[in-house]
Amino acid sequence: MAPYNTNEVYKISFLRNGMLKLEGPNLVGNNNMIPISIINKSGEMLFKIECCELTELDCNLFIVCKYIEGKSFYGVIDYKGNEVIKPKYDGIMLSPTESGFIFSLNEKMGIVDFNGVEVFPAIYNSILEFKDGLAAAELFNKWGFIDARGNVRIPFEFEDVNSFHNELAMVKIYGKWGFINKSGEIKIKPTFYDNEVCNFSKALQAHRKR
């Protein structure tokens, strides 16, 4: 028999590898903390935790949210319930990079590795999801691109950007959009305004046919 009381379960979610997430009712007077049990396909409980949220990731880890001293903090645990990253961040992105997780703290963003060591501190206003090995980041109201170790690969000199796709990224300079490559070289000159998306797409298609 499984070591849990099914009468106390109000929600069941299916996880990868045949596992289940069993959620109990909110704990009275405990700031919306919920008892959550992770059950393997044999019906055995892998671990039980009290938290606000528990989100499964593709890399055999969970993002966990705990209510600590009147505030919600996010961390990471493994499939045995072991703490990987201490819950001390305001948020953690669901898609990890090759070097760790993008986190937010005090309205800034940085990256923490899979051992809980910060690759670089929360210094950026924003970091977008990594694409083609680079992520768009904002610093002092300008956008550039960084790699997974936090190294600046393309300087912060753009008004706005989109993530890389097929080796090219959209960038905005003096109110107009163009394209750069991963070396920061302009491949299509910024000539398109925000309302010229159709022409902009045609310009990209023409460039790729060259």
Residue fraction in strands: over 45%
Low-pLDDT windows of residues? none
Structural class determined from secondary elements: mainly beta
Mind describing the biggest β-sheet? 4 strands, antiparallel
Shape: elongated
Q: In which order are the strands of the major sheet placed?
A: 1-2-3-4
The overall pLDDT, averaged over residues, is: 88
* Count, helices: 1
Write down the Rg: 22 Å
The SSE string, one letter per element, is EEEEEEEEEEEEEEEEEEEEH
**Number of E-type strands:** 20
Measure the end-to-end span. Answer: 66 Å
Q: Helix fraction?
A: under 10%
Describe the structure in your own words.
With 210 residues, the protein is mainly β. The protein is 6% helix and 50% strand. The protein has a four-stranded antiparallel sheet, with no helix packed on it. A four-stranded antiparallel sheet has the order 5-6-7-8, with no helix packed on it. The model has no long low-confidence stretch (mean pLDDT 88).
Record keyword descriptors for this entry.
210 residues; four-stranded antiparallel beta sheet; 20 strands
